[in-house]
What does this fold into?
Amino acid sequence: MNKSIAVIRGDGIGPEIVGQAMGVLDAVAAKYGHSFSYKEAPMGGNAIDAFGVPLPEESLKTCMESDSVLLGAVGGPKWDAQPSANRPERGLLKLRGAMGLYTNVRPARMFADLSAACPLRADIAAKGIDFVVVRELIGGVYFGSHATETVDGEQKATDIMAYTEHEIRRVAHVAFQMAQKRRGRVTSVDKANVLDTSRLWRRVVGEVASEYPDVELLHMYVDNAAMQIVRDPSQFDVIVTENLFGDILSDEASQITGSIGMIPSSSMGEGKRGLYEPIHGSAPDIAGQDKANPIGTILAAAMMLRYSFDMAAEADAVEAAVDAVLKEGYRCGDILQSGGTLVGCCEMGRLIRAHI
Ligand code: NAD
It folds into this structure.
């Protein structure tokens, strides 16, 4: 198969980790007889420096015309003083909106060989962590109107959170269909005791549930969900929630598995084209030092193979290669435990490629 991939290297450690993921994709192409062509799409702080905007039109066009998009991470202290409409993260929000990527999927899975890195009590970790957070990505407060004004001599800021039925329904379908392929349980997270958007969310998710009688549905308030994720994560299979709650809960979920550097994510809308990235940011504190863990980005590339290109065997091969390298004891600094062998970003990429 021939596939075109738009590549957004981004800022900070972005270029380092994306380079390793591309190397792994090339190894997959060589082994399975595929051809992947890459086209660079500058976005983020580097695009502000070069073009004055975080997402140049040409980059957006490249992404829209590709079969899929691979992203490192954007942002960094250099651009913190930018006006909010021109910050690096705005480029990412604009890209998600333009590509219609309404679903973000983040697996929270604890690798058996990394259980010592799990910050939870051993008896809780022993029950295992294997769930998926399905987050609505282009609605809610992140996409509502924002305003700061002066009222009665002091500053007042307002962010509008809004949801329509169809925005809730389409992401709910994704969650139920995912649960059908997993352990058949959806936990819908909201704040229906306080928010109108959450009451609408709860009603619509309940209606969608009636189309999936083989899937069990539970509703949970977001404050309780935040607590349950650390108290007993084994109770979760698929969590579905709105944009803001999903942003926070998915970071919490990734942290309990060990390292933020290990977790991939996919963002999809209608059709097969998706945006694949690690869940972490640009880690400016370790950028350019060959210290970044590339595994989250490499596993994001595996998700691209599985979900956008229907290459399940190839995705399995990448995930198995990651498991094998971890089993051999190789670790980047963020997941290093006593007895492990410390390797840098490039060497971790090389080891994984060697197992493909
Ligand atoms: P971060 O995820 O970049 O870093 C948090 C901590 O985790 C740091 O100590 C970092 O060194 C470490 N870390 C992250 N990824 C790692 C990896 N692959 N290997 C080893 N260690 C890793 O979060 P932050 O410091 O809050 O944000 C830095 C910048 O990234 C900010 O400008 C933020 O806006 C941006 N950001 C971008 C995205 C994105 O592009 N999707 C997401 C989150 C944050």
The pocket of nicotinamide-adenine-dinucleotide is lined by residues 13, 17, 73-76, 89, 92, 260-261, 277, 280-286, 292-293, 296, 332, 334 (CB under 6 Å). DSSP finds twelve helices and 14 strands in the chain.
